[in-house]
């Protein structure tokens, strides 16, 4: 009886392994047979937004996703996601991949797979009202700080700096809470903060980003469902070509997001190969 149970268990494990292997190929095969790559993008005004005329998604992350589809030889479909639902959309198969303001973290790595070659390195910056007396991350101790739900800045803000973090649906909502006095600072990806402060006569003219360094600079990567090795391999080749050709630098400059020093280093590395 024990031998039969062991054999049954071995058969189950083998079947599971074969099922996982088949699943690894499923997304890339489905993309090609369907003729469309579906990518989840965040449209909060930092890396993407809705064009007011066409009501279609435009922006940095949208154009990266578009180029992925072009290089795979398929059409492109953008699906709007938010920080609270982006992982769920990916796991439920509503999108094939995410280019959605998601830097690499160990926690995300445990539930998703990612393209190993990053397309940028980005950290967090804080927006605060001028004259608030906040000049460094340590000044946030015991103070309320706004972030987007699911932000990877939540843990270091709490554990390293003792901030009282408040999560909101997305960056626009968190910044609105800052303006309303709910928080003393709002922490998000640096390009999003820089873009809003660039217009010195706009609605953020009374605010600044005074921190001397970025919070946890991390690789920006493309995420897919766990175990999809074929999809990862196909997308990784494209990202490496992006670095070699300078495509990412051109896209960043086009959307007023100057390349990081790390991105420039990756371009030198891959163009030399």
What is this structure, in a nutshell?
Residues 36-259 form the Solute-binding protein family 3/N-terminal domain. With 273 residues, this protein is an alpha/beta fold.
Describe the 3D structure.
A hairpin with a 6-residue loop joins strand 2 and strand 3 (57-58). This protein has helices at 2-34, 60-72, 86-91, 106-111, 154-159, 171-179, 190-197, 229-245, 247-254, 261-271, and strands spanning 36-42, 49-50, 57-58, 75-81, 97-98, 112-114, 120-129, 144-148, 164-168, 185-189, 207-208, 215-220, 223-225. The chain is built from ten helices and 13 strands. The longest helix is centred in the first third of the chain and has 33 residues, at 2-34. The protein has two domains: 15-119 and 221-271, D-Maltodextrin-Binding Protein, domain 2; 123-217, Periplasmic binding protein-like II (D-Maltodextrin-Binding Protein, domain 2, 3-Layer(aba) Sandwich). 43% of the residues lie in helices and 22% in strands. It is α/β, with parallel strands linked by helices and 273 residues long. Pfam families: SBP_bac_3. Keywords: Signal. Residues 36-259 form the Solute-binding protein family 3/N-terminal domain. InterPro entries: Solute-binding_3/MltF_N.
């Amino acid at each position: 009886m024990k031998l039969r149970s062991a054999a049954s268990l071995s058969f189950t494990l083998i079947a599971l392994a074969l099922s996982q292997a088949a699943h690894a190929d499923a997304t890339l095969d489905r993309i090609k047979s369907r003729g469309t790559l579906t990518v989840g993008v965040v449209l909060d005004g930092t890396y993407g937004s809705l064009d007011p005329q066409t009501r279609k998604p435009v922006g940095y992350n949208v154009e990266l996703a578009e180029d992925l589809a072009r290089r795979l030889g398929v059409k492109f479909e953008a699906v709007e996601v938010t920080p609270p639902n982006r992982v769920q959309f990916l796991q439920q198969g509503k999108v094939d991949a995410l280019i959605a303001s998601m830097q690499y973290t160990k926690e995300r790595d445990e539930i998703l797979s990612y393209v190993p070659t990053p397309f940028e390195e980005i950290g967090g910056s804080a927006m605060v009202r001028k004259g608030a007396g906040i000049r460094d991350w340590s000044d946030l101790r015991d103070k309320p700080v706004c972030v987007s739900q699911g932000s990877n800045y939540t843990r270091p803000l709490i554990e390293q700096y003792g901030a009282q973090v408040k999560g909101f649906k997305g960056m626009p909502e968190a910044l609105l809470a800052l303006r309303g006095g709910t928080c003393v600072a709002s922490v998000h990806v640096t390009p999003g903060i820089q873009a809003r402060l660039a217009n010195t006569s706009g609605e953020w003219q009374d605010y600044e980003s005074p921190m001397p360094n970025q919070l946890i600079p991390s690789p920006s990567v493309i995420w897919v469902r766990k175990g999809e090795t074929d999809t990862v391999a196909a997308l990784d080749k494209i990202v490496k070509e992006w670095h070699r050709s300078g495509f990412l630098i051109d896209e960043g400059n086009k959307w007023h997001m100057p390349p990081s020093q790390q991105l420039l280093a990756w371009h030198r590395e891959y163009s030399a190969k």
